[in-house]
Specification:
- This is Conserved Oligomeric Golgi complex subunit 6 C-terminal domain-containing protein.
- One of its GO terms (cellular component) is Golgi transport complex.
- It comes from Schistocephalus solidus (Tapeworm).
- Residues 81-263 form the Conserved Oligomeric Golgi complex subunit 6 C-terminal domain.
- The protein is an all-alpha fold.
- The protein has a domain at 130-263.
- Helices cover 76% and strands 2% of the residues.
- It has nine helices and two strands.
- The chain has helices at residues 2-32, 36-41, 48-71, 78-107, 118-127, 131-158, 182-207, 214-241, 246-262; strands at residues 161-162, 170-171.
- Strands 1-2 form a two-stranded antiparallel sheet.
Amino acid sequence: MEKIVMETNLNQSRRLSINLAQIAASAFIKSFYISPEDWGFLNEPPSQAVSDRVLQLLQRARTTQRLFETSIRYPTTILAKDIVKVTACFVDKAYEQIYNWVKREVSAQCFEAIEISVVLRKCLEVLQDRPILFKYVLDEYANARRKVIAEAFINALTVGWNSGSGFEPVATKPMELQSHDPLRYAGDMLAWLHQASASEREYFKSLTSDKVEIELMHDCLNNITNGLAYPLQLHLEQLLVTEHSAVLLYKINNILQFYSSVIM
């Protein structure tokens, strides 16, 4: 009788251990398993809603990675190894999905005053974990903004609708109407450039986080304002080649020196 009781207790103990193991395994899989539905989001066409959801899934996957890196550095079980491998693949594809959407969004920043959504800002902050992808995005953004700012400068010179400062469009006379007054003409062009550069700097800061390297910011802003170099040089050369007054040339040179020190 005593033997039967001992065997019964042993079987109950084994059954309890099995149940606990099943519960632990279920909890483990629930915590770290990536469902087919989650994978499906990575195959959806890039959009703001999809990117917002992918951000959440990416955060969860990165948490899993950090947990394994700190607690289980060398996974030994087949299940743990599979989770590490699958999670790494998911993270890579999630970054790629976010990158594709962000690249499309920044390429569309073709207005003089840009619009930045909360999701776009979050995505850009996340992409900073992948420096190469982040650099590609900044290059795409700079290309789009360079075209916008160059066109705005030409319009300010010839048409007079100067909204390149980033504020509401204000009807102004074309700057070329002041070409008979070289000092004012040069000053107006350089003042416009200074204001536009400051606006682009603010746009960049609102687009990215404070973690962005200063060098990256300067490279991006330089790429944007490079679109102004040729038209500015052309108009200044046309202005100076016809001017023979040493006093006036000296004053223009002072203006150039001043704006060279304050722009960017």
